[in-house]
Every structure is written in structure tokens, then in C-alpha cells.
Write a structure and sequence with these properties.
heterodimer, A: about 160 residues, five-stranded mixed sheet, 2 helices, globular, B: Hypothetical protein af1432, 17 helices, binds fe (ii) ion
């Protein structure tokens, strides 16, 4: 089985049979995974910054990453009405001031963008002091989440 | 109600365990003193450290990693030191000497051999980005605290091990930070143990204090070095670089950014550049696995 690592700040879309998209140690980063089981296309974007910091930056913001994710998926044959969308990550400290609550800001920015585009999530595992690892089979209908000392979760 | 057995008051035991820990190489402190002396030359540093072969090997590995940004591969100490310059030599000396301590498995904290090294180096990479952005002049001191901030875990590990479940349970059920839970169960925490180790190893008081303060929201806002260390650590956890069992189980002071002299835009800029720097330096993880 081909394992495709999605690094932080990157977006990957695949229609390869039997492949699996995965991301490790998300921290406060937020992974958005989308899958069209009919067209057998899936993608994952791992967002680390709500907005692009400046023009020269190599790290995109939420909007750029979601645009890239859905554009690429549709170009590979995915249909918006078939999309199963999952969110994982956005961990936060037990208490944290707003200015450092980057996980919460990422989550908010992603929800706003999805809503604007009439998209809903099928499953979410976000927030709290939990460091997550997430994966999705290309064309699959579930996202798998693992955490240290916790049971594996299927969304 | 959570049943907690009496703390072991491990601090005494920690001091005893420290005696078993090999002492941080004295040549590093001597070399750092030479770097402080404007009359001395960089070749004098080489004279002091060249007999410690393990240290020299680690210095060359680090010098050739992307983290120190040299454009050419170097195979001998003199060339490495000449190319690095005063500030970077300080960083490479401390990181090279710390490598053997930080690359042990910490079974008590459920950390693999590479985890503590990865987290310490990530924190150091983030500290370099912060120093650059906010103009923190003593960047090599901040780098040193970042490399060594969790050193207390190597001694507390044997005490945490059997009682990690208890520490985590207290943290979860009472909403206490991991440090507060370590205190309840063990009678100390890894920050205090770390400061004790560094004092024993003759590190300057400001470095020991910053390590002591790195999880205490009331203390780390009292001086800028401590605040910058706490912020470097928080950002490397947020970026998911070497997150241990304690990970996100801490309370963050609302005054932290201000105490570090870091604005909201600076924080985002640092997150952005830390990711790029970290991926450039990614091979540093493999160094200890070679
Ligand atoms: Fe720590």
C-alpha cells in the first residue's frame, strides 16, 4: 500500500487505488480531509496558519489551502455533493490566551470557509490537549485518528 | 475524589541520581569562557576541545546539518569553527555536548530515543527564529536554554515511569497542568530537577532560572529570557515537533507574549519561519539514529 505523507502547510490530492494519505503529530495544526468515494478521489490539507503571513511566505493560509484542495479534487472528478469532509487536530493548551490560541483560530477559519461554500463536515475530532495523528484511505469513507494512550478513533 | 498516594519527595532522590549522571563536559564551559575573551582566538577553542573525540564528532555532525546553514560540508574541527563564527560555535558546543544526554529513551515519559532530541532541537530552532524576529541579542543563551530545558526529564524518568498513569489521571481529572500533577505525585517536577542538574553542571544562574521557570506561568513572565524560552517551547509543541506525554497539558500566561517582547504579528511570522526552518533542518532527527 502506498503511504503518502502530508506535511504541515501542504495539500495533497490523490486518486491512486489502495493509497493512504496520512499526517503525523498534528499539534495545533488542523488537518482537513475530503473524500469522494464515487469518483475515488481524496485529499488532505494540513493547515498551520489562519492567514498567509506575507507575500514571500512559503506557508499558505487556510483559504489558499482549501481552494487548492477542492480545485484539485474537482479536476480529478470529485463532485461537491459526494464529498465526505473530516477535521482533525487544532489542539490547545489547558488554558491559553486568545493571541496564542492558534488551533481555535484555524478551526474557526476552516468552518467559515466551508460554510460559505455550502459544505458540511461528516466527522470532527478537534481541540483539547491532544496530539493527534490522522489518516484516510484514498476513496475511503472514514478518517482514522490515533493519539498517545488513547483508543484509535474512526470518524 | 482521586486517591493519590503520598508524594515521594523525590527531590532528595533526584540529587542522588544526579551523582550517577556523567558530568557535562568541562571543556565546553572552558571553551565558552575563551569565546568571551576578546584576546583569545577561535583556534584556542579548538585546542581545548579537540581531545574530546565524542564531542568533536557531534560538533561536526551538527555543523554539517542544515540547521547551522553552512554551504559546504566540513570534515575537520578547525574549518568547522572558522566557518561558524562566535555565536554559532556557542550553539554547536552546547548542542554537541548535550546530544548524548538527550538521545536516551525515556520510558517513564513514554518517549522514544529520538523524541527528546527532536523536541529539544525543535525548541532551539524556534528560539533562533524568535531571536531574529524580536531582536533578542543574547540568542546563544536562549539557544542553550532551549536545548537543555527538558534535561530534568532524564533524571525524573525513572520516578515518573511507574507513576505516569497517576500523574496523567490527576492532570485530566483536576485540570491541573502536568507540572502540578508531577508535584502532587513526585514532590517535584522536571523543570526544578532540570535547574538542579544545570546548577550542578556549573551553568550560569540566568540559564538555570529560565529552565526552572519554563512551565510556570507566574515565573516565566518575570524575565525576558524565561519568557522567550517558554514561548519557544509552546510554539514547538503547537507545531507538533517532538510532543511528549506532557504535551499540551499546561496553562499559558496571558502576559507571555508581552513579557517576551513579541507582538501578535511577530508570533505568526515566527510560526511561519519555524516550519520552514524545521523542514530544512529535518535531517537532524536522523543524526542520532546513524
Ligand atoms: Fe518541559
Amino acid at each position: 500500500m502506498e503511504q503518502i505523507l502530508v506535511k504541515k502547510g501542504k495539500t495533497v490530492v490523490s486518486d491512486k487505488k489502495g493509497a493512504r494519505l496520512f499526517t503525523v503529530s498534528l499539534g495545533s495544526a488542523l488537518a482537513i480531509a475530503a473524500s469522494d468515494p464515487v469518483a475515488h478521489v481524496s485529499g488532505m490539507a494540513v493547515c498551520v496558519l489562519p492567514k498567509k503571513v506575507d507575500k514571500t511566505s512559503a506557508v499558505p493560509g487556510v483559504l489558499e489551502q482549501l481552494r487548492e484542495l477542492f480545485k484539485e479534487m474537482i479536476s480529478k472528478g470529485a463532485k461537491p455533493q459526494n464529498l465526505k469532509i473530516f477535521l482533525a487536530g487544532a489542539a490547545g493548551f489547558l488554558s491559553e490566551p486568545d493571541e496564542l490560541a492558534i488551533g481555535k483560530k484555524l478551526y474557526k477559519a476552516v468552518l467559515v470557509t466551508l460554510k460559505k461554500n455550502g459544505l458540511k463536515t461528516k466527522g470532527e475530532h478537534v481541540g483539547g490537549p491532544l496530539n493527534r495523528t490522522a489518516s484516510l484511505h484514498v476513496g475511503g469513507e472514514n478518517m482514522t485518528i490515533t493519539m498517545l494512550d488513547e483508543k484509535e478513533i474512526q470518524l | 475524589m482521586i486517591a493519590v498516594s503520598t508524594p515521594n519527595f523525590t527531590l532528595d532522590a533526584v540529587f542522588e541520581s544526579m551523582a550517577d549522571l556523567p558530568v557535562f563536559p568541562k571543556v565546553v564551559h572552558k571553551a565558552l569562557q575563551v569565546l568571551d575573551d576578546p584576546k583569545k582566538k577561535i583556534s584556542d577553542v579548538s585546542e581545548i576541545i579537540k581531545f574530546d573525540q565524542g564531542l568533536v564528532a557531534n560538533i561536526l555532525k551538527l555543523t554539517n546539518s542544515a540547521i547551522f546553514g553552512l554551504r559546504q560540508q566540513v570534515t575537520d574541527l578547525d574549518t568547522a569553527l572558522a566557518l561558524l563564527g562566535n555565536q554559532k560555535i556557542r550553539e554547536v558546543l552546547v548542542a554537541g555536548a548535550a546530544m548524548p544526554y538527550l538521545s536516551r529513551p525515556l520510558s517513564g515519559y513514554e518517549m522514544a530515543p529520538e523524541d527528546l532530541w527532536l523536541h529539544s532541537m525543535s525548541c532551539a530552532v524556534v528560539s533562533g527564529v524568535i531571536s531574529k524576529r524580536i531582536g533578542f541579542t543574547d540568542s546563544s543563551t536562549l539557544f542553550t536554554t532551549a536545548i537543555l530545558h527538558d534535561i530534568g526529564k532524564i533524571v525524573l524518568d525513572i520516578y515518573v515511569g511507574p507513576r505516569l498513569g497517576e500523574v496523567l489521571m490527576i492532570s485530566k481529572q483536576r485540570g491541573n497542568s502536568f507540572s502540578e500533577a508531577e508535584w502532587s505525585v513526585l514532590g517535584t517536577d522536571h523543570a526544578v530537577a532540570g535547574a538542579a542538574i544545570l546548577t550542578n553542571w556549573d551553568f550560569p544562574p540566568d540559564i538555570c532560572r529560565a529552565v526552572r521557570n519554563h512551565h510556570d506561568p507566574d515565573l516565566y513572565i518575570q524575565d525576558r529570557l524565561s519568557a522567550c524560552l517558554a514561548l519557544s517551547n509552546i510554539m514547538s509543541i503547537q507545531l507538533g515537533f517532538g510532543v511528549g506525554t506532557d504535551g499540551f497539558r499546561y496553562h499559558i500566561s496571558p502576559a507571555l507574549l508581552k513579557a517576551a517582547g513579541c507582538g501578535q504579528e511577530d508570533y505568526y511570522w515566527c510560526m511561519d519561519h519555524a516550519i520552514t526552518s524545521f523542514y530544512e533542518a529535518e535531517k537532524l532527527l536522523n543524526m542520532i539514529m546513524d
